[in-house]
UniProtKB/TrEMBL annotation:
Lineage: Bacteria, Pseudomonadati, Bacteroidota, Flavobacteriia, Flavobacteriales
Ranges where the record places region Disordered: 1-24
Residues annotated for heme binding in this entry: R75, R115, F164, R361, Y365, R372
Identification of the protein by name: Catalase
Signal peptide extent: none
Length: 713
């Protein structure tokens, strides 16, 4: 679809609404919560300077009392998250599919609040855990709030919400010893996975690089479920939602993830905050895959099965608008911690499908907010308020913030003129899609959900060789952490249903054999026993040989904007080299960071001082996308004296990143563990900046992988 050209509304009603609730203590007197001005918040009231503290000290009691109750229960999943405000704007109306204002009115800039999260880890765990990432977007539309609560992977582990507690209990720390934190590499998870084979598709995605994103700004988002779009005539189309990041889809290696978690467990949170703070606003395009209802059963998989994706090669993603995140929260707790997303929050023009996973979610989110936010009035918390008027007869309860007027709290009524009144569909009143259902009440799993292997196999076949290697390494790490051989063996057999080479490589790394068969039925949990033999490559169930759009090798590599480039310097570095490279990189909106043997200032060969961004003692190579070393004998001699600079270089090489050096900088390469590989195509010695920039834009030079095995870091 053509990009929108005309300018959009600048009014951001949500920011204005939040401003009404914002409090700023700048140039204000300190007070109690009762508004009483305080003249001493440093000492408790005592019976004499050295006497006992007095119970009457209401200032002490209020301050400590409040402090004691500042924490609320963390989210039961997705506890660790980071969020930002922004807007969504439509390129062109898709009114033939949906009557939703957000999908028909191109003059709007709809305020949004997006929260990204890991799933398994506690609130204080690390950003770079190997995990799915939550991708939740709250659209404050003029017809009410729409919450699109997705993930960064297009499918989910399970098909029926009934299995969610089991899935989460299996991946969270084990109940006897609360180990491990923020990790799926343990027995209970793979015990459950190997007995519930519908999980294998999302599970292999978690073994891929998708689970360790370079940045929250460099990952896709998916609504996962099949939803419905409803147009003005009441006609429905099935739809799947996609978020396509402007910066492409890029990941770190597992070795980087392990080290980043130690060097900066807030890596993603800081990256998102800094990008917005510096005006490098993260951006995604919203895409839709549209399926006419009459085509519902044309696929080899069931659209209601959340463990299946629709390959873009079968139904293209139409890009219909963009989301730009351009404002950091004012207060983490008030906004990011208290935001409550509800998949059940929809607007006219959008509706649900009978996906059993979605159906269960429609209950759970509202329910969980009660224990998390403490009141059914959580929607009155500023960040959760719609920008549209709220009038109904729902009343009272803890923390009721509004003062309803009038004598009635019921409908119908005469005493309030029948108000708040009902709205017709034409006036914007919501009408559920009238889907015809002709079935018996039954507790079962649809036979159409029983293919658990074709799509994981398709995903794996579609990966580039370097991605496949990362999957094999990930399985070897994860299953290597399991202590029960029978669980490892089950998993090896199941992986062999996806790909023999993969299973053989993992089995070799585990020092195990792939069993001939495993105890059946596999799916004790759901009774079905998907006959895996049907799903070997080449068998009837395979509908695509490959789906190239699933591979990160086919993402965008057209920018180095916001990439962080480490400049390794010491006193006496060549100003000319430094200036030229810095100017070239910053012209492309990359971020240059000066790393020196010490903090404070570092002086170049023109006797000018430069502020050091990080001393080598406080930073690691894994926090940067590439390295540059300007010349200057004195500087290079000083760097050579610190082994950590050599380690920094060796790791940068090992992680297949670009390296550029000028003049005497080459001497540092000569001290590295990869001197024999100086001809590598992503190493530039007195090269030109544009080649270095192109190499950085390629994210990693994966051709180098076979040379990195012996790099000792
Ligand atoms: Fe969920 C939170 C995404 C399945 C029940 N979920 C939560 C969040 C995201 C998702 C992004 C964090 C929202 C935030 O930032 O506050 N969840 C998903 C996706 C799913 C999914 C994409 C499958 C397609 N979830 C799922 C199921 C259930 C839940 C099947 C229950 C039956 N999810 C919850 C929850 C959470 C939640 C327990 C915990 C915190 C919250 O709701 O607000 O209700």
């Amino acid at each position: 679809m053509a990009k929108k050209t005309k300018s959009s509304n600048s009014s951001d009603e949500k920011s204005k609404q939040l401003e009404n609730f914002s409090v700023d203590g700048k140039d204000k007197a300190l007070t109690t919560r009762q508004g009483l001005k305080v003249n001493d918040t440093n000492n408790s009231l005592k019976a004499g300077a050295r006497g006992a503290t007095l119970l009457e000290d209401f200032l002490l009691r209020e301050k400590i009392h409040n402090f004691d109750h500042e924490r609320i229960p963390e989210r039961i999943v997705h506890a660790r998250g980071s969020a930002a405000h922004g807007y969504f704007e439509l390129y062109e109306s898709i009114e033939k599919y949906s009557k939703a204002g957000i999908f028909t009115d191109t003059s709007r800039k709809t305020p949004v609040f997006a929260r990204f999260s890991t799933v398994a880890g506690s609130k204080g765990s690390t950003d770079l855990a190997r995990d799915v990432r939550g991708f939740a977007v709250k659209f404050y539309t003029q017809e009410g709030t729409w919450d699109l609560v997705g993930n960064n992977m297009p499918i989910f582990f399970i098909q029926d919400a009934m299995k969610f507690p089991d899935l989460i209990h299996s991946v969270k720390p084990e109940p006897n010893n609360e180990i491990p934190q923020a990790a799926s590499a343990h027995d209970t998870f793979y015990d459950f996975i190997s007995l519930t084979t519908e999980t294998l598709h999302n599970q292999i995605w978690v073994m891929s690089d998708r689970a360790i994103p370079r940045s929250l700004r460099m990952m896709e988002g998916f609504g996962i479920h099949t939803f419905r779009l409803i147009n003005k005539e009441g006609k429905a189309h099935f739809v799947k939602f996609h978020w396509k990041p402007k910066l492409g889809v890029h990941s770190v290696t597992w070795d980087e993830a392990v080290k980043i978690s130690g060097a900066d467990s807030d890596f993603h949170r800081r990256d998102l905050w800094d990008a917005i703070d510096s005006g490098q606003f993260p951006e995604w395009e919203l895409g839709v895959q549209i399926v006419p209802e009459e085509d519902e059963h044309k696929f080899e998989f069931d659209l209601l099965d959340a463990t299946k994706l629709i390959p873009e090669e079968m139904v293209p993603v139409q890009l219909i608008g963009r989301m730009v995140l351009n404002r950091n929260p004012e207060n983490f707790f008030a906004e990011t911690e208290q935001v409550a997303f509800l998949p059940g929050s929809i607007v006219p023009g959008i509706d649900f499908s009978n996906d059993p996973l979605l159906q269960g979610r429609l209950f759970s989110y509202r329910d969980t907010q009660l224990s998390r936010l403490g009141s059914h009035n959580f929607h009155q918390i500023p960040i959760n308020r719609p920008i549209t008027p709220v009038h109904n007869n729902q009343r009272d309860g803890h923390m009721q913030m509004e003062i309803p007027k009038g004598q009635t709290a019921y409908f119908p009524n005469t005493l309030s003129g029948g108000c708040p009144y009902l709205s017709s569909v034409e006036e914007g009143g919501f009408e559920s899609y009238q889907e015809r259902i002709d079935a018996n009440k039954i507790r079962t799993r649809s036979e159409s959900f029983s293919d658990h292997f074709s799509q994981p196999a398709l995903f794996y076949r579609s990966l580039a060789d370097w991605e496949k290697k990362h999957v094999a390494d990930a399985y070897s790490f994860e299953l290597g952490k399991c202590n029960h051989a029978h669980i490892q063996e089950r998993m090896l057999w199941l992986i062999a249903q996806i790909d023999d080479d993969l299973a053989n490589e993992v089995a070799e790394n585990l020092g195990m054999k792939i069993p001939e068969d495993i105890e059946r039925p596999i799916n004790q949990a759901i009774g079905a026993d998907a006959n895996v033999a049907d799903h070997q490559p080449g068998k009837k169930k395979i509908y695509l040989d490959k789906a190239p759009t699933l591979s990160q090798a086919n993402t965008k590599f057209d920018t180095i904007a916001t990439r962080k480039i480490a400049f390794l310097v010491a006193d006496g570095f060549h100003m000319k080299d430094f200036d030229q490279m810095k100017a070239a990189l910053e012209k492309e909106n990359a971020v240059v960071k000066i790393i020196a043997p010490h903090g404070g200032m570092v002086t170049c060969d023109s006797e000018m001082e430069h502020k050091v961004d990080a001393s080598i003692m406080t930073t690691e190579s894994v926090l940067y996308d590439a390295v540059y070393i300007p010349g200057g004998k004195k500087s290079i001699d000083a760097l050579m004296k610190k082994s950590k600079f050599i380690k920094f270089l060796n790791e940068t090489f090992k992680h297949c990143k670009a390296i550029a050096v000028d003049n005497e900088g080459e001497q540092l390469l000569d001290k590295s563990a990869f001197t024999e590989y100086k001809e590598d195509k992503a190493i530039f010695i007195n090269g030109n900046a544009s080649d270095f920039i192109s190499a950085i834009a390629k994210h990693r030079n994966w051709d180098r992988m076979d040379k990195t095995e012996n790099i000792p870091v």
